[in-house]
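User: Could you go from structure to sequence for me? I need the amino acid at each position, not a summary. Structure tokens:
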């Protein structure tokens, strides 16, 4: 069964951004979710200057998405405001 946008969003909803006190989907930070077979790419736009936090946050979210059975590789890119 192929991975879906809904499955990716469900994973992202499990993580709370400590600066926004919301998950990235509810906070409106998700700019794009691209799915190509078993590869997923997510782009986030954070509404604050994230500094070093954004790379660790992106890596944690990518690891969560890779936990989906259908996903072989996930990348997550965070752009600070």
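Assistant: Here is the amino acid at each position, in order:
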């Amino acid at each position: 069964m192929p991975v879906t946008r809904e499955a990716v969003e469900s994973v992202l909803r499990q993580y709370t951004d400590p600066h926004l006190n919301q998950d990235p989907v509810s906070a409106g930070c998700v700019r794009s979710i691209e799915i190509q077979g078993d590869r997923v790419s997510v782009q986030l736009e954070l509404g604050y200057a994230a500094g070093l936090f954004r790379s660790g946050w992106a890596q944690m979210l990518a690891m969560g998405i890779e936990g989906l059975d259908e996903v072989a590789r996930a990348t997550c890119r965070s752009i600070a405001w």
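One structural detail worth keeping in mind: The longest helix spans residues 53-66.
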